[in-house]
Amino acid sequence: MKRNSKWIGILILTLMLSACSNAGIGGKQISVGGKNFTEQYLLSEMTAFLLKEEGFKVKQMNNLGSTVVRKALENEQVDMMWEYTGTALITYMGQEPMSDPEKTFQKVKKLDAKRDIHWMNMSNVNNTYALAMNQDQAKKLGIESISDLAEYVNNNPGELTMASDAEFANRPDGLPGVEELYGFEFGSGQIKQMDLGLTQRALNNRQVDVSVAFETDATIVDYDLVTLKDDKKFFPPYRAAVSINKNVYEKYPEIKDITAKLADKLNSDIMRELNYKVDIEGNSVSVVAHDWLVENDLIEE
Question: For the chain, how are helix, strand and coil distributed in percent, rounded to 5?
Fold first, then answer.
């Protein structure tokens, strides 16, 4: 009896160790990284909802700086994330900016393939620089594009003022480059330098006439601003797309179709509205992400 009990005990112990060693191995698991601003929180959260709907166990690694999350992706500490094509091309890869979104995407895809990082599902979310004005003033002055702005400044020198942070005011791919390409120039007294977070507030308060902005900023909605059309395509595209470790993609190729559902529906206007719901209205990222996915029939309620 004791002999049988001994072998039964060994058998039970073996089964327990086997179960422990296999814990976490069964099922589909993936980690999703994200940067430390609202748009990235939303993209990460929506992706997590979609993956969970398809049976994945998802670990989210958000609130990371841009270079930190990129390093985590390269070191396979993060499996996938939504990255911006312009950030990858210019900041991570040290390449010259490109104006064509598709060519930019293909370039980063080719360069990152050498690092075993796969790019897919480029969306129409373009988190690039923009020049913004108050809707009513832009309409009054007949300014819809940066070319219109250039013509007005040249015909009315010294009249319009612009709010900019120091970086945009001085970098070649910022205001100096815009002025050179479009053939106009704000006088030194017409440029009001301030923190980036204050530029659109100054515009809304009528302290300036033009402001630097980002295409998907929630304040564009909040302040009822208009972004001027970059008709000569100066600002490089910063399209949000999925970047994923090659081995993870090969293991779970269905992720392409899952994340395509998101990429196919999102654009800068929608992203701006979603950012607004979080940043201005104070709703939680999770609620905004979930509700939008349900409204667009991407997940069940």
Answer: 50, 20, 30
